[in-house]
Amino acid sequence: MAAAWARGRAETGEWLEVYGETEPQSVPLEQMFATGSDRATPFTGYLYVWTLGYTEHAPDAKVTLLFPAMGDWRVKDVQAIVYHLPPVADERAWRTTLARDLRAAGPVLETAGKLTADLVGFPELNAITSAAAHLRARSAPQMPDEEWFVKRVHRSLAGILHQGVEWTLPANFVKQIGTRVTGALLVQFVGAAPAYEDSDPPGGEPLPLLACATLTRDKEMRLPEDAYVRLPLRVTPERPRT
Questions:
Q1: Does 207 or 124 have the greater pLDDT score?
Q2: pTM for this entry
Q3: CB–CB of 231/18 below 8 Å?
Q4: Within 13 Å, how many C-alpha atoms sit on residue 104's CB side?
Q5: pLDDT score of 120 more than 70
Q6: Fewest beta carbons less than 10 Å away: which of 38, 44, 123, 162?
C-alpha cells in the first residue's frame, strides 16, 4: 500500500490537490457485521484529502471526489469534513457552535460506545465511532451565513459511472479558513462482484479517483478547466488474517 498525491494547475495560483491511499483493500460485505469473532472484520477506513488554493477574494467553492463504480468493489462513505485550524477570525463564535454540535452528538456517541462495549462480535463499530469522533472534533462548524454542506453525487464520464461526494462552501466560510482550504472523506471499500454482466474497466486497467473544483466569483472558473485531478486507484481484496 502507498499514498500518493496529484495536483492541477498550480502555476495559476488557483489549484486543487488530492492525496490518499492508492492501493486500498476491500472488505467482504458478509463479514462487516459478522457476529463470530473468527469471521468479524475490523473496520478498515481510508482517508482521502483534498486541498484547494485560490488567490485574491474568497470564492464560493464546490469540490467533488468521484470513485469509479466498476469492477468488484464499491465505496462506502463514512464521514466528510472540512478541517478547522484554530484560531480563525471568529474563533469564539466557531468554538461555541462546535461545542454545541458536539454536545448534541454526545448521546449518540455515548450510546454507540456502550453498544460496542457490549457486543464483542462487532469490533469494527468501536473503530468507526472513534474515527468519526476524531474527525468531527477537527471539522469546521456550520455557522450562520457560513453553512457548508456535503451531498452524495454521481456522474457518468466517458460512459463510466462514478459515485462520490461534493462539498459546497460559501465564500464567507472560505474567507474564514484562508487561501488554502482542506477537506477529507473517510471511506471504506466493500467487495462486491457484478451480478450479471462483465463490468471490468476497459482494458482491464484500474480507473483513478477523480477530483474537481469550481470557484465562483463574478464568473465560474473550473480547476482544472474541463478536466480532473486523477489519483491512481487499485483496490484489492483484503488479505486473510493469520
A1: 207
A2: 0.83
A3: yes
A4: 8
A5: no
A6: 38
pLDDT beyond 80 at 98: no
Q: Measuring CA to CA, which residue among 145, 182, 186, 146 is closest to residue 165?
A: 186
Q: What cell numbers appear for 2 in the block?
A: 502507498
Query: What amino acid occupies position 241?
Result: R
Distance separating alpha carbons of residues 142 and 205, to the nearest angstrom: 40
Q: What is the CA radius of gyration of the chain?
A: 19
Q: Report CA 142 to chain centroid distance, whole Å.
A: 18
End-to-end CA distance of the chain: 18
User: Between these two residues, 142 and 15, which has the higher pLDDT value?
Assistant: 15
Q: Which ranges constitute the DSSP H helices of the chain?
A: 91-118, 123-138, 171-177
Instruction: Tell me the per-residue pLDDT of 47-62, one tens digit each, with 9 for 90 and over.
Output: 999 999 998 889 999 9
3 state DSSP class of 103: helix
Q: Which residues contact 42 (CB under 8 A, 6 or more apart)?
A: 123, 124, 127
Q: How many CA atoms lie within 13 A of 112 on its CB side?
A: 16
**Collapsing DSSP states into helix, strand and coil, what is residue 16?**
strand
For residue 185, pLDDT beyond 90: yes
